[in-house]
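Renewal narrative, Specific Aim 1. Our central claim is that a sequence can be written position by position from structural information alone. The example that follows is taken directly from our test logs and has not been curated for this report. It begins with the structure tokens describing the chain, in the order in which they were read.
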């Protein structure tokens, strides 16, 4: 009876914490719309939604620039955080994330290749190309990390991910240096940014990404079992191969969709899962929704901060997350160990 009461209390606290995080994200998104090189009042923001009023320059900027930017930052941040949490659970590696394991770089290479050699410019095509690049990269990393008698280990898959990241980065740079057109079109995108993104870019990926969010939440009870290890999961009757395959598909959609719309933004997938597990434990029924919100908070907040560092110019949010992520990565790497 006492244990049941404690569990109910914990659920209430976690629910309240999630609601508080959603409120923080909403406030940050409003700040993202209002503040920057040009600040807009709350009245100007609300009037931009008035379809009967004559469109002003402020209303056009708010609707076509600021609002898409805030929505994309929230969606991409949440997606990368969920992908990182799933990867860390599936590989039992605390350093796992789309940026470290080469998935982001594979998706980026596929887009650069399509622009440089096939003159692809369609946003919808970018989405599918990014998915394909992420899938190929993740397959190669998993295959390389599984070679040898001892099979897949956290150290081997980390080394394989680092190797594939360097490999795809080198190929990407080679294409850009040899193709001026591709260089001009994608260099700004490769830094990782939500600046200048349009609602059309968001619309090209959000149906797939939100479906992957739902899939991640449905998978969460199975991830709890899988994170205990393959032997334990099989002993409990779980079809581990099937669960890993579906989880890998979800990760590819989340990472590929994020790269397609915002470029290869790094470290969100490492930072947020560790913070969330520290706050709510290792139950992925809570980790997944918390990652979705906390990832959005991190990326929206980083994007706001990036606007004021070197005003009147802006620092790309990919640079801001890298500055935040490198010390955290070093801390996790020095701490070592597997997930609890």
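The sequence written for that structure reads:
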């Amino acid at each position: 009876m006492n244990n049941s009461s404690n569990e109910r209390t914990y659920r209430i606290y976690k629910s309240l914490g999630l609601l508080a995080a959603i409120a923080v994200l909403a406030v940050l998104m409003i700040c993202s719309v209002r503040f920057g090189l040009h600040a807009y009042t709350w009245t100007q923001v609300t009037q931009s939604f008035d379809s009967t009023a004559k469109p002003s320059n402020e209303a056009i900027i708010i609707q076509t620039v600021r609002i898409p930017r805030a929505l994309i930052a929230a969606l991409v941040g949440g997606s990368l955080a969920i992908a990182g949490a799933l990867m860390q659970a599936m590989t039992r590696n605390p350093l796992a994330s789309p940026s470290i394991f080469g998935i982001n770089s594979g998706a980026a290479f596929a887009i650069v290749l399509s622009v440089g050699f096939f003159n692809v410019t369609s946003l919808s095509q970018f989405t599918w190309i990014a998915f394909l690049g992420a899938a190929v990269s993740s397959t190669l990393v998993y295959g390389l990390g599984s070679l040898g008698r001892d099979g897949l280990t956290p150290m081997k898959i980390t080394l394989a991910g680092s190797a594939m990241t360097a490999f795809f980065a080198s190929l990407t740079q080679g294409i850009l240096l040899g193709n001026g057109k591709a260089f001009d079109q994608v260099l700004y995108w490769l830094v990782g940014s939500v600046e200048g993104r349009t609602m059309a870019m968001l619309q090209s990926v959000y149906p797939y990404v939100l479906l992957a969010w739902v899939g991640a939440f449905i998978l969460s009870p199975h991830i709890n079992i899988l994170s205990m290890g393959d032997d334990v999961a099989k002993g409990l009757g779980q079809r581990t191969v099937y669960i890993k395959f579906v989880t890998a598909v979800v990760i590819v959609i989340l990472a590929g969709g994020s790269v397609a719309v915002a470029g290869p933004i790094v470290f969100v997938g490492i930072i947020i899962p560790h913070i969330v597990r520290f706050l709510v434990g290792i139950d992925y029924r809570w980790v997944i929704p918390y990652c979705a919100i906390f990832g959005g908070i991190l990326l929206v907040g980083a994007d706001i901060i990036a606007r004021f560092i070197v005003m009147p110019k802006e620092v790309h949010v990919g640079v801001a997350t890298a500055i935040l992520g490198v010390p955290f990565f070093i801390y996790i790497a020095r701490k070592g160990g597997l997930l609890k």
